[in-house]
Amino acid sequence: DAKTTQPNSMESNEEEPVHLPCNHSTISGTDYIHWYRQLPSQGPEYVIHGLTSNVNNRMASLAIAEDRKSSTLILHRATLRDAAVYYCILRDSGGGGADGLTFGKGTHLIIQP
Amino acid sequence: AAGVIQSPRHLIKEKRETATLKCYPIPRHDTVYWYQQGPGQDPQFLISFYEKMQSDKGSIPDRFSAQQFSDYHSELNMSSLELGDSALYFCASSLNSGLAGGLYNEQFFGPGTRLTVL
Predict the structure, then answer these.
(1) Which of A6, A48, A86, B38 fits a disulfide with B87 by CB distance 3.0 to 4.6 angstroms?
(2) A40 contact B CB<8A
(3) DSSP character for B25?
(4) CA distance B23 to B43
(5) Does the pLDDT at position A27 exceed 70?
(6) Distance of CA B16 to the CA centre of its chain
(7) Strand order in the sheet with A70-75
C-alpha cells in the first residue's frame, strides 16, 4: 500500500473549523483515500472516503488535490467529541473490499474548550 | 442499531497459555477483520475473512489462527502467549457482497478485547 504522511498532532478550539492534512505523493490511480478516527478507549470509526472529487457527509468534508498527492479532512465545527486520532488510509481498488486497513501514525487532534 | 460484539471484553492469561477471542459481526455482514493494537501504538491488521474463507493476511504471528463460522462469527485463537501479545484486539465487520470490490463499504469496529499476558 502507498504511504501516507500526517502531522503528529494538531490543536484547535471548540466550534472552529479544523483542517487535517495528509500527504500521499506515491498514490496510484486506483487508490481510494479513506479517513478513520479513533476516539479514546474506542475502536476506530469510518469518517469519509473519496477518489478524485471532493466529498461531503454528515461528519466531515474531504478535499482532494487535483494531482491527488494530498488531501485534507475538514471538520466544519469541531466539538470536544471530535478529539481523536485521525488516520488517512489508502485502499487499492484492485485489492478487493475484504482487505485490511493499513493504519499509519495518524494525527492526534486536541480540541480546546 | 446493532454493532459488532466482542467477547470477552477483558482477558488475563499467563505466559504460554492459550486464548480464544470471539467476534459477532453486524447482522448480514459477510466480512470480518481482526486488528491488534499494542499500548501507545496504532492498530495493525492481522487477518480477514470473506464468506468464511480467508481473504487477506497481515502481520499475524504463526502462533495465532482464526476462522469464520457458518453463522459469520469469527474466533481468533492465540497459543503460546507471550508478554508482547498484551494488547487491545479489535474485530471489524463489513458487507462486501454485491458491490464492485466492496471498497465503498466502511468497516465497523467492535469495542475490543483487552488481553493482558502476565
Answers:
(1) B38
(2) no
(3) P
(4) 17
(5) yes
(6) 20
(7) A18-23, A70-75, A61-64, A55-56
- The partner residue sitting opposite B55, judged by closest CB among A49, A98, A104, is A98
A2 has a pLDDT exceeding 80: no
**In sequence order, what DSSP letters do the residues of A45-102 get, joined into one string?**
EEEEEESSS-EE-SS-EEEE-TTSSEEEEEESS--GGG-EEEEEEEEETTS-TTPPP-
Q: Which burial class, exposed, middle or buried, applies to B53 when counting CB atoms under 10 A from its CB (0-12, 13-18, 19+)? A: exposed
| Other Cβ atoms closer than 10 A to B32 | 31
Q: How far apart are the first and last CA of chain A?
A: 37
Q: Which of B44, B105, B109 sits opposite A45 (nearest CB)?
A: B109
Nearest-neighbour CA in chain B from A46: distance (Å): 6
* Residue pLDDT, tens place only, B20-46: 999 999 998 999 999 999 999 999 999
Strands B10-13 and A84-92: unpaired
Q: Which three cell numbers stand for residue A4?
A: 501516507
